[in-house]
Predict the 3D structure of the following.
Amino acid sequence: MRMKLHFVQLIYVLIVLSGCGDVLSDYETNDIHPLNIDEIICLTLNERQSINANIFMNEDSLTIKDLYEQHSIDTNLFISPTEEHHWSISIDSTSYFMLSASEVADSYFVALNFSSELKLFNENGNLITPINDKISLQNVAGCSNIRVRQVYSGLNGLYLASLYNPNVAIVNLIFINDNINMIENQ
């Protein structure tokens, strides 16, 4: 009886090892090249200075629309796209800030260095859904420090951002668009 059990275990181990061999050979033969935008995100996160973002809380339990209206006129609260620095955001469970997408761009990228829940809302309080919020191996090849990466299309104007993370006190945020170099070089 014991011999049968050992034989079954041996067969199981051989099957698992042969399956892992196929997966490992895929990684060995297929080079994964990072995207340029992910390399820029990583450079901004790791080699640029941090700027403290002005955040606010929703202590009065206002609706998203009312919170937007209350803070949309204070330009000190605006986070704008840049490669020159990343934004350091203090979190007490849920923090709010304003994202200003004032430049014309095909895509805007928001990246965070900690797993967190990030939501964007427009002036009517409607949730803006990212066109992509998955992190691929290609993205990780460009920047392994990023835990959240969202891509938005069609952003134009000011947005209320809600950032939720009960586990950390500070999250670093990178906010850039896909044509920032072109605009800065003009």
About this structure: The chain has two domains: 1-30, 33-185.
